[in-house]
Amino acid sequence: MSLNNIKIVLIETSHSGNIGSAARAMKTMGLSQLCLVSPKKPIDEQAISLAAGATDLLENCQTFSNFNDAVANCQLVIGTSARLRHLQNTLFEPRECAELALQRSLKNKIAIVFGRERIGLTNSELLRCHYHLNIPTNPDYGSLNIAMAVQLVSYELRMAWRTMQKNPQNPPLADYPTAEVLEHFFAHTDRLYTQLGFIRNDSVMLKLRRLYQRAELETAELNLLRGMLTAVEKYTAQK
C-alpha cells in the first residue's frame, strides 16, 4: 500500500491559511499529494507561514478548475459530508475510510475530497463520490475547521498504514475504472435509456448511478456493460 497514491482534494477554499494548515497536517502523517479546486485565494505568505515547513506540498500541489478534473484519474473517490440523511448506504467514519483507502491504494489512485468551509460539497459533487465520510463530532457542536478535518483523516490513514506495515497482506487486486471512465459510462447509459424511453426524469438516472456505484464495478464488468449498451444502440439503429 502507498500513501503516495492517496490525494487530498480541497474544494474552493476561502482562506489561504487553511491550505497551508492542511499541508502541514498532511505532511506530519506522511501524505504528500495535495490538490486544489478553484481556491478563492491563491497560495500566499499566510499559507506558506501556516504550512510550517510543508512548503514542498504547496509547491507541488495541483490546481484544477472543477471537481471532475481533480478526481478524473482516481479509481476511488471519497467525499466528506456532514449530511447523513440520504447517504446511509455509502457512509462511513474515518477509521473505516482509512482502511479501505489503504487497501485500494495498492493498485489504485484514491481521492479524499473536502468541501467548502461554509457549505461543504454540493449534491452534484457528492453524487460523484463512491463513498461518503463523516467525522462523528459532538452533535451539539460539530464545527470543524477544514484543516482539523484533514488532520483527523490523515491521522487515521497513518495508523492504518502502520498497521498494514506490521501485518502485511496480499489480497487479490481488482482493477477498477477511473472516475472519468465511470462518468463516460453514466453519460452513455443516460443517453441510450433516454432514447429508449426508459429514463423520463432525472430521478431514474440518479437511482441507476447510485446502484452502479454501490456495486463498485470492476473494469472488466464495466466494459461488459458498455458493450451491451453499444449492441443495443446498433440494434435500434437498424430498425
UniProtKB/TrEMBL annotation:
Pfam families attached to this UniProt entry: SpoU_methylase
Keywords, comma-separated and alphabetical: Cytoplasm, Methyltransferase, S-adenosyl-L-methionine, Transferase, tRNA processing
Gene3D superfamilies: 1.10.8.590, 3.40.1280.10
Residue span, tRNA/rRNA methyltransferase SpoU type domain: 6-155
UniProt xrefs under InterPro entries: Alpha/beta_knot_MTases (IPR029028), RNA_MeTrfase_TrmJ/LasT (IPR004384), SpoU_MeTrfase (IPR001537), tRNA_m1G_MTases_N (IPR029026)
UniProt GO MF annotations: RNA binding; tRNA (cytidine(32)-2'-O)-methyltransferase activity; tRNA (cytidine(32)/uridine(32)-2'-O)-methyltransferase activity
Enzyme class at the top of the EC tree: transferase
Enzyme Commission number, as recorded: 2.1.1.200
Catalytic activity entry: uridine(32) in tRNA + S-adenosyl-L-methionine = 2'-O-methyluridine(32) in tRNA + S-adenosyl-L-homocysteine + H(+); cytidine(32) in tRNA + S-adenosyl-L-methionine = 2'-O-methylcytidine(32) in tRNA + S-adenosyl-L-homocysteine + H(+)
GO cellular component: cytosol
GO term, biological process aspect, one: tRNA nucleoside ribose methylation
Subcellular location as annotated: Cytoplasm
Domain of life where this protein originates: Bacteria
Protein family (similarity comment): Belongs to the class IV-like SAM-binding methyltransferase superfamily. RNA methyltransferase TrmH family.
Function: Catalyzes the formation of 2'O-methylated cytidine (Cm32) or 2'O-methylated uridine (Um32) at position 32 in tRNA.
Subunit (UniProt): Homodimer.
Listed name of the protein: tRNA (cytidine/uridine-2'-O-)-methyltransferase TrmJ
Organism: Nicoletella semolina
